[in-house]
Amino acid sequence: xxxxxxxxxxxxxxxxxxxxxxxxxxELIASENFxxxxxxxxxxxxxxxxxxxxxxxxxxxxxxxxIDEIEKLCQTRALEAFHLDPEQWGxxxxxxxxxxxxxxxxxxxxxxxDRIMGLDLPSxxxxxxGYQTDKKKISASSIYFQSMPYQVDPKTGLIxxxxxxxxxxxxxxxxxISGASAYPRDWDxxxxxxxxxxxxxxxxxxxxxxxxxxxxxxxxxxxxxxDIVTTTTHKTLRGPRAGxxxxxxxxxxxxxxxxxxxxxxAVFPSCQGGPHxxxxxxIAVALKQAASPxxxxxxxxxxxxxxxxxxxxxxHGYTLATGGTDNHLVLWDLKPQGLTGSKIEKICDLVxxxxxxxxxxxxxxxxxxGGVRLGSSALTSRxxxxxxxxxxxxxxxxxxxxxGEIQASCGSKLLKDFLAAAEKNDxxxxxxxxx
Length: 435
Ligand code: PLP
What we know:
Blueprint: H1 4-7, H2 9-24, E1 26-27, H3 37-43, E2 54-55, E3 58-59, H4 65-81, E4 89-92, H5 98-109, E5 115-117, H6 140-143, E6 146-147, H7 161-171, E7 175-178, H8 189-198, E8 202-206, H9 211-215, E9 228-232, E10 243-248, H10 259-271, H11 277-290, H12 293-315, E11 319-320, E12 329-333, H13 341-350, E13 353-354, E14 356-358, E15 371-375, H14 377-381, H15 386-410, H16 415-424, H17 426-434
Parallel strand pairs: 1-13, 5-6, 5-7, 7-8, 8-9
Antiparallel strand pairs: 2-3, 4-10, 9-10, 11-12, 12-15, 14-15
Helix pairs in contact: 3-11, 4-11, 5-10, 7-8, 12-15, 13-15, 13-16, 15-16
């Protein structure tokens, strides 16, 4: 029973450094958040010791009486957090992550080589929604299924539903996927349902990024229109790292071939082995929190903060994809400043602001994309309000201005030369202190 500190001081020290990094800087990565002490406690319990392949009441191992209770509690809370009637919706809480949840959902719904349509990665979609390039099938979802991604309109940055509808007529997908990783606007699920219905396709939503906002009724509700809804639990939902799959029950379904049976079997045994019971317990805690009035207030503030950040950047003269935001994220186009997202990501690291480079529709290269993605969920968890986000925008404005000066003076477009010049710049250390 030795503590981590005594047992493994090297690792302990690294964890302490990471903790300090997380709390001393400004965390703007849109997919990250600060989960609560209670969630972390549940995640660190002896539940991690237990094997429980199968489902509550039907396990392949003994000794699961408490694990069954925990998993059932998690299921109940998942349905409650998203205001779902258990007669109409069920949920599998075992996916290890968002990616495995998505692959299990595909495995449940469609056959190998069936046709899927998801938002293209350079348009803000996720890898697992069928990503491929002209040269290579990158994601397993494009290797095992045929993928024809849809795009945003390069002029407006908004999803081009008309073009999606036209392409769907040619491609006749069996599965249409809504939801994304870097799309700052809400979704028209009714329109997507119509397109899916034209081809008798399933409609899925991967609400990973904004599920916390859906729980708080701060976004359109994908459950009104979709057959299946997946999510991660660690982004706006503020839980541990994991995934969930919700499935719509169909009246009169044969149990053997029902969507419930297919989803459950796809998760185990098709895609996964033993559930991570400590994580499931931690999800249950996060879902209890997500159903609270405090969380509803948090979600409102997340959106208000993202809007304040966007408005201030615009007031500094910057270009944002779609011209603003409806959710927790802002997609900032730095091409008008002649800078790449990679340079801004690196220079921000130097001053303890964490964000990530991101493609903007029309970018030539995904390796050196023209923008960055910012999110308000993590700093809102730390109590930031609109005025704080305006200050964050002002810091970012200073950094981008400085980055422009450094790029102009270092006489090279290469990232490594830019970074070397930035590291030597006095204004960087001054900014770091102020941040
Ligand atoms: N789906 C979306 C929309 C995401 O943005 C992400 C991750 O960022 C995932 C799925 C994958 O989740 P994970 O990293 O837990 O596998």
